[in-house]
Amino acid sequence: MTNFTKSMFESIKETLENQKSGGGFKNILKTEVGNSYIVRLIPNIKNPGDTFYHYYHHGWNSVATTQYVNAICPTTWGDRCPICEERLKLYRIGTDEAKDKASLLKRKESWLVNVYVVKDPKVATNNNQIRILRYGKQIDKIIQDAISGEDASAFGASIFDLSENGCNFRVKVEKNEGDYPTYVSSKFLPKEPIEGMTPQKAEQICSNIYVLDKLFETQDYEELKELLADHYEVKAPKAEAPKAEAPKAEAPKAKVEEPKTEAPKVETPKAEAPKTINEVNEIDEADEKLKDLLAGL
Ligand SMILES: [Zn+2]
Fold first, then answer.
1. Separation of alpha carbons 4 and 203, rounded Å
2. Which helix (H) or strand (E) holds 71?
3. Residue 281 C-alpha to ligand 1 middle, in angstroms?
4. Ligand 1 centroid to 61 CA: how many Å?
5. In this structure, are residues 112 and 134 in contact, taking their beta carbons and an 8 Å threshold?
6. 125 pLDDT exceeds 50?
7. How far is the centre of ligand 1, averaged over its atoms, from the C-alpha of 121 (Å)?
8. What is the DSSP string of 128-165?
9. Nearest of 137, 128, 78, 83 to residue 105 by alpha carbon
10. Is 60 exceeded by the pLDDT of residue 23?
11. Which of 9, 103, 115, 152 is a good FRET partner for 246, with 20 to 30 A between their CA atoms?
12. How far is the CA of 38 from the centre of ligand 1 (A)?
């Protein structure tokens, strides 16, 4: 075996192993405030429509264990989500307390894309490797603009081109006034070659990308209901909350399946729920925009 084919084999093997275990997760590029990362987006040549993975998710600190729990929201693929539904119930109660509680269950929106890392200023082992860039709305807007918006004539297909005719993407992580990381200054750069890139290498890279929609384990409706019961709807009075360290098993498995006393009106016809859940999501998005706006002042 020549070196080339050997390394090709190794990287194919690694990719397969990662994908088998959902371990691709660890290949999500970590970006830290105060740094800029240079990457080149990698297209999914076999299935161009899968170049990006757009998904929704929930995450909060468990009321039972205080550890962060998270889950992919089934609305990602158009199914009902008990977490969104719980949030809707709380919104309908309408009190500040209920809304506060609901905010923990907020639905977040993210995207994934395979990238070739040209320069990671913090982790050198990421350089010249395929990693996954996970991002939110700010970067999505920049990418959308480059694909079909006002920057399309300057960039367009070149953002997916690994050759010297392609453009790098610079992910710039700054901190806004509200102390949150902000990515608004990220941008595509003028066309330039990637050091050491050859057409063969580009081909090899394109055939070793991560399968983005297999990255996360997903849970069905019942499993997510259980997650809520275990980590959110813990009925214990607040004073008891710091019982935190208690192992999961102890978390009152009291499956609070039925709405607590506060929410008798919950019985919305199922068919109607998703529509109103969208409305709640819009409220959340408006909140988010307001927060961004305030942070930017
Ligand atoms: Zn959801």
1. 13
2. strand 68-72
3. 10
4. 16
5. yes
6. yes
7. 35
8. TSEEEEEE-HHHHHHHHHHHHSTTTTTSGGGGG--STT
9. 83
10. no
11. 103
12. 33
Distances from the Cα of 229 to the Cα of 46, 99, 187, angstroms: 41, 18, 42
Using DSSP's 3-state secondary structure scheme, residue 53 falls into strand
CB distance 30 to 171 below 8 Å:
no
- Give CA 171 to chain center in angstroms: 16
Write out pLDDT tens, residues 224-257.
999 999 999 765 455 444 544 544 444 444 444 4
pLDDT digits (tens, 9 = 90+) for 133-164: 999 999 999 999 999 999 999 999 999 999 99
CA of 176 to the centre of ligand 1 (A): 28
135 Cα: distance to centroid of ligand 1 (angstroms): 18
Tell how far the Cα of 258 is from the centroid of ligand 1, in angstroms. Answer: 18
Helix 96-103, helix 82-93: angle, nearest 10: 160
Tell me if 60 sits within 8 A of 252, measured CB to CB.
no
- Gap from CA of 57 to ligand 1 centroid (Å): 6
Q: What's the start-to-end Cα distance of the chain, in Å?
A: 60
Tell me what pLDDT residue 286 has: 67
**Exposed, middle or buried: residue 137 (CB in 10 Å: 0-12, 13-18, 19+)?**
middle
pLDDT band of 284, cuts 50, 70, 90: low
137 C-alpha to ligand 1 centroid (Å): 18
